[in-house]
Design goal:
Layout: H1 4-27, H2 34-45, E1 49-50, H3 51-58, H4 62-74, E2 78-82, E3 90-94, H5 96-116, H6 122-150
Amino acid sequence: MESLDKSIGMYLNYINRKILRFLSLNLKKYNITTEQWSTLLNLLEKDGVNQKELAKKVDKDQATLVRILDILEKKKLVVRKKSSKDRRSFLIYVTPEGKNLEKEVYPFIESLFKTIINGISKDQINLFIDTLNKFEKNIYAEEQKINQNND
């Protein structure tokens, strides 16, 4: 029997790294990394969130997210403002420059993904996404069990 780790886990990891390298190579001309783009994209979907909420949404620890936000702020793509509700907390907003970058990069990224999925039917894509969602749900359920046992 073939190892599930090798046939699923390692292959997903391998393809993920290839996609990230492909995107990184193509994003260089916009002077933004895939992690920065992912963070900016999440902010564009819900502007004015706090760092803790954003860290959870982009699946980054606080320290990593702070470094990403520092870079995005230096590039004038985002700005941090003190929360009026909690003075210890900052809310992150996309700047007009960040919104302009999104107008350039988003269509470009969409065209890259059209290249990546070339020759794959919509049904296959939907099945793939459904399968990934089930992976995520199963992992989440197992993480909850581990967290309950550690409490």
